[in-house]
Amino acid sequence: MSGELRIVVSADLGELGPTDGKPILYHFSPLYHVQGLIPWLLLPLAFVALKENRTLQVAWILAPIVLLAVGYWAFMAIAKATTGDRVQMNTFFTIMVVGFSLVWLLADRIGNRSRLVALLLAALIYFGSLGVNLLTGDFGKDAMTVVIMASLSIPSILFAFAAASLASSRSLGKARFFAVAGVVLFVSFAVILSVVTPIAHPSHSIREQIGELAFTSLIFSGVFLVALTPFLVLLWTNPFWRRRFECVTGVRVDTP
Questions:
Q1: pTM value > 0.85
Q2: pLDDT, tens digit (0-9, with 9 covering 90-100), for 7-57
Q3: DSSP calls for the chain
């Protein structure tokens, strides 16, 4: 479906007035059918454009992506979200997954530097992915909600990685990495929600607001930590991706 669409609102008003409203013409571009897929093209572009990614080992990054996509699809099917909510969540999922994957596809370019420089370059890549999503989508009220959510989530993820890397020093402690990342995610979301909660629920008591803040922060940090797990498994177990993890974080992963 594309081209000029003629939209007419119709209602049975009986003798009160006409049943059809004034026609509205709307141009529906064929691009609208695929614009949600355009950001995903950044992944194959990174495979082809970067010499260091022209190897079969790079394809392993698709494993956590597919796993998360299947889990996300199953959740959305169970949740039975409305069309509007589904569009917003699809965009948010794309921004977070594509952006995080691009950080590691460009790891050889941003790694082997100081941790601060690597963190700033990773943020530049992540927010660049966010910008591509904005350019290829409709910039409206719903889009602004997604932009705000992503803009707050991206620093939380990067800070969690940076803090967990610092806590691991030169040798990786997997349990410690998970614990520190989880705590930083929880604190980050708690700080963000401490501003949002009083605005969203001004009539609630302080005790209720604190309870809502703690519960929501726990849910958000838990979801993000679970979503990061497939990537961490790949980064820690696959020799090719383990080298990239080490060059970005400065943490050595002990092999069994």
A1: no
A2: 555 655 555 555 555 666 544 445 554 565 677 788 888 998 999 999 999
A3: --EEEEE--B---GGGS-SB---EEEEE-GGGGTTTTGGGGHHHHHHHH-GGG-SGGGGGGHHHHHHHHHHHHHHHHHHT--HHHHHHHHHHHHHHHHHHHHHHHTHHHH-SS-HHHHHHHHHHHHHHHHHHHHHTS--SHHHHHHHHHHHHHHHHHHHHHHHHHHHHTTB--HHHHHHHHHHHHHHHHHHHHHHHHHHH-TTS-HHHHHHHHHHHHHHHHHHHHHHHHHHHHHHHHSHHHHHHHHHHH--BPPP-
